[in-house]
Amino acid sequence: MTTPEDRVRGFPAFGAQGGRGQFARSWWGRAWIGAMEDTALDLRQLKQGRKYAAAGRVGPITVSPGRIAAVVDDQEGQYRTEVRLAELTGDEWDRFLDRVASRAGHLAALLDRDMPHDLVEAADDAGVHLLPGIGDLDPDCDCPGWELPCRHAAALSFQASWLLDADPFVLLLMRGKGERELLDELQRRNAPRFVRTGDDDIDAERAYADEPGPLPDLAAFAPTGGPTVPGAPDIPAEAFALLVANAGQMAGALLASQPKLTRKQDVVRLAATRPETADRLRPAENGEDFDRAVLAWRHGGRAGLDVLETAWTPPSQAMGRARAAFAEVVDDPGEGLDIERNHCTVHGTGVQVRLGKDGLWYPYRDQWPAGAPEADPGTLFAALLG
Description:
Blueprint: H1 4-7, E1 9-11, H2 27-39, H3 43-54, E2 61-64, E3 67-74, E4 77-84, H4 90-102, H5 104-111, H6 117-125, E5 138-141, H7 151-166, H8 169-174, H9 179-190, H10 204-209, H11 237-257, H12 263-273, H13 278-281, H14 287-309, H15 316-329, E6 337-340, E7 343-346, E8 351-355, E9 361-365, E10 368-369, H16 377-385
Antiparallel strand pairs: 1-2, 2-3, 3-4, 4-5, 6-7, 7-8, 8-9, 9-10
Helix pairs in contact: 2-7, 3-7, 4-9, 12-14, 15-16
């Protein structure tokens, strides 16, 4: 059942990002930005909007069907700004959900907060256009400017790309349906159908209206006796049985103590720890992103993958430590280090170190993981810069 919370989502304001700010890391986020930029009448407004977004001038953002809205600060005051996007029709939603339900991988990807290319392409083939194109985004603002978009609507659109990067369900909500509503409808489409043989004199309407009967007692099918293990010289078979039971208990305790991996994370883990499986697991599309994720896991495990895929804003003292470490390594630090959230990039070199939430610093070169993490960022700067 749809609740008001399913149809309206609020997001806290992004703080000032420092540096120039980076927008639209995902391909669908870039499509959103592209739809806005391709329609813009004044590129100066886009440039100013980018600065406003990076400076944290956009207030809390509200997303609802057909609309994303926020208040944007300006030197002249505060302005109510929104960007509208047409909702899908009922028929379009049916066609889209039928496509998603027909491929288990599509639903798994959405739940992993991913928007696969083939899902969007399948929707396009069905005449359902999820991503906005030229002219689909309709900005509106109560500022006196006449530009479309004005700098306030541009700032909101740039920050919206961060929301889309993190959760493609934000785009689907703008198209008209909330996450819970979508999952309920997909569950109904994937529910098993119980079909009668037709030889019981019950009409079809009555048959499909009946609730299915109870499942059989699965305990009757449980194997008994446990594994059969032969003995070995001076080792009785009972000892092997005890070892098997103990290993099972330890594995269960280990799994219970660890955060559950998503399907995507588990595939990356398997490819990283069992290299012989990597070629088979590597997807046909976005293969380079997969290789980068596998390398991140090999160097830093799950924490390394999180550092690759997620940017966050650490305490200023931590980033100040990185700047001080950089100054100790180079002869003339000048303006050579650009700090953006938890990323520290050395201008013109492709060298970057990223701070993980585990307190370790991870080396990168040309956006690729470049080694194991270290507790001291200076050690990494020295190694990467030679």
